[in-house]
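Problem 12. The chain below contains 171 residues. Write out its predicted structure in token notation.
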Amino acid sequence: MKIVVLSDTHMPRMNKKLPERLVRELKGADAILHAGDWTRLSVYEELAAYAPTYGVAGNNDGEEIVRKFGLNKLLTFEGCRIGIVHGHGSVKRTGTEAHAIAAFKGVPLEAIVYGHSHIPVLKQGAEGSPLIFNPGSPTDKRKQAQYSFGIFRISDGSIKARHVFYANKNG
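Solution.
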């Protein structure tokens, strides 16, 4: 199973359309995860045309998106449990990653997906600890060298994760 993982699209402010590099991967996706800051429900509608799309609201999302998605979500794909949260909130002392992990404290998971920082993260936890994954942003790299999103491959009850990096958000 192939899952495309993204966050922080901030559309249409940061880009008028989904980047072509992302669209190429969406065409073969079995599911899509979005970790918040869609900013418009039309982004969900566009993604859902490619594959079943799941996500959470971020700090830049309005009430309509908060009502539709909520602030955190637990999903199961082929026996793998994935927690999704944007990661915003009281993060100054602990950081976005720690805030995301705390959102699922005590919940048995194979992966935690979060956004907010626009910083790509891939950390494979020790045995029994979840994979920690931030896809970065496909449209707003901020101080990062490149734009990014993620791909999860799920088989035999395990997740293999990677980032896709690219320099041109329109290409």
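Discussion. The domain at 2-166 is CATH 3.60.21.10 (Purple Acid Phosphatase; chain A, domain 2). Students who got a different answer should revisit the alignment rule from Section 12.3.
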